[in-house]
Amino acid sequence: MSEQGCPECGAADFIRIDLTLADDTEVTFCSCHRCENRWWDKGGKALPLDAVLKLARKSK
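Above: the chain sequence. Below: its structure as tokens.
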């Protein structure tokens, strides 16, 4: 998804930040310069914010 451009406006000018979450899942946070859309990507597929937050929680 994010290699093609912003899913909202199609702009190729966006920030990509690769992250490793608490459970070692690798995700990419993306933020579009043109429309200010923000999204998460895991392996080329969109990942909803609630799923990212669930993966990011550290278990005690």
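The chain has a mean pLDDT of 89.
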